[in-house]
Amino acid sequence: MDFLTTLLLLVHLIPVSAPKNGASSKSRKRIMPDPVMEPGVPGPIHEALLYCNIPNVAERSMEGHAPHHFKLISVQVLIRHGDRYPLYTIPKTKRPEIDCTLVANRKPYHPKLEAFISHMSKGSGTSFESPLNSLPLYPNHPLCEMGELTQTGVVQHLQNGQLLRDIYVKKHKLLPTDWSADQLYLETTGKSRTLQSGLALLYGFLPDFDWKKIYFRHQPSALFCSGSCYCPLRNQYLKKEQHRQYLLRLKNSQLEKTYGDMARIVDIPTTQLRAANPIDSLLCHFCHNISFPCTKNGCIDMGHFKVIKMHQIEDEKERREMKLYLGYSLLGAHPILNQTVNRMQRAAEGRKDEIFALYSAHDVTLSPVLSALGLSEARFPRFAARLIFELWQDREKPSEHSVRILYNGVDVTFHTSFCQDHHRHSPKPMCPLENLVHFVKRDMFVALDGSSTNYYDACHMEVV
Question: Which of 92, 386, 402, 415 is the most exposed place for a label (fewest CB within 10 A)?
């Protein structure tokens, strides 16, 4: 077990929502796992802790690292929203009691939290692209609503924003002190958790920003495919991938036994329990250190949780091997990667607009992008995951531009499919921009079957 996991387990950094009616927090059941029970190799508890992404643990990051003669000219950030309340409930169980109001002196804490709350309250008349203008700018319910961002989620992105500010604004001067609205590009899906996550990161990045300079665009699709969403072949790959998932589940007798046991506890049919996606709710209990649900028939426990989480890990492994998801990802991620490359090319030509772009998205946005880039070993996107594209100019050869790609602070550039060979044959510390351009404009389609040369043709091929 690594140091971070051990630290989290030993010092109880997992936040617990405040008890109701002044009740003592000592009476609250905890589910902190016993470190001795988790094997040395990454297992379900280790993976779940990484997924929770508990804030307030110092994070090392490699963003902004480059030789002194390189100049940073563009940064594009793709994030998953922060910690949220479950999207599903386990039938016949009590909803986890988590307070989604923001309280500055409650854990998890961030020095900018109180100022963030104040600043968000001043933006109530802000005009964003419809329907975003009807969404609250920060979470505010004493009992979280389904899918609502929590205080943990806000703090996660305040931390992300502050980290990126220290590197990109303070160190590299990416944005001037008098930055203008056209130097930012901001886009989010129509969920409050993504808008609020984007605002939290933006506030950490540009504290006390001028509301008149902030405009979030609305993206109707979780794939951020804009006007290029119709893609029949992508949908066929997805159906085949879902069938693969179904067959893997049928082969897992321990998983079926676990679902049956949990269904007996809550007194519903097994199919109904599975449809309620219990892992989503159980992860919320786990991340917030709240005891799993109990009924008169017994309690859902850590054993059940481990079996379901372990199946997820095995599913991700088989998914990488079977390549069906890769086909889905290459087509699903192409539109947003194409936007990213086009923006980089404009910056390389000297354009000064949209030099910082932020896409606030979901796990189903990041996951296909990671897969399409060839980052097959990347972990499933945790809460508040960040994927960053940096564009650099060589001051000694101003016509040459290079890219770096970082996932949760780790430089993964030379793990991408388009830059592995370059790393083997070149001493240069970064990847040439043209490698990424050729990959997005041509090689992504070649990877499918070799006959298509553009997105439209690739989308309308017959699946093999």
Answer: 92
Please give the share of the chain, as a percent, with pLDDT higher than 70: 89
Residue with tokens 């808008």: 195
Model pLDDT for residues 249-274, shown as the tens digit of each residue: 999 999 999 999 999 999 999 999 99
Contact between 445 and 452 under an 8 Å Cβ cutoff? The reply is yes
CA distances from 9 to 156, 285, 286 (A): 19, 15, 12
DSSP alpha helix (H) spans, 223-268 = 232-251, 253-266
From CA 406, how far away is CA 388, in angstroms rounded?
Answer: 5
Which one is predicted more confidently, 143 or 11? 143
Beta carbons of 90 and 134 less than 8 angstroms apart: no
Instruction: Encode burial over 17-40: b for 16+ CB neighbours within 10 A, e otherwise.
Output: bbeeeeeeeeeeeebebeeeebee
- In this prediction the pTM is 0.90
Q: Does domain 44-86+111-226+324-460 have CATH number 3.40.50.1240?
A: yes
374/416 Cα distance (integer angstroms): 5
Would you give the distance in Å from CA 349 to the centre of its chain?
A: 30
Residues 201/361, Cβ–Cβ less than 8 Å: no
The residue whose two tokens read 């051990």 is 6
Active site residues: 81, 363
Ranges of each domain in the chain? 44-86+111-226+324-460, 233-322
- Token pair belonging to 49: 């802790």
Distances (CA, A) of 36 to 33, 87, 282: 9, 32, 22
Write down the mean pLDDT value for the chain.
Answer: 90
Tokens of 293: 């649900």
| pLDDT tier, 41 (very low <50, low <70, confident <90, very high otherwise) | low
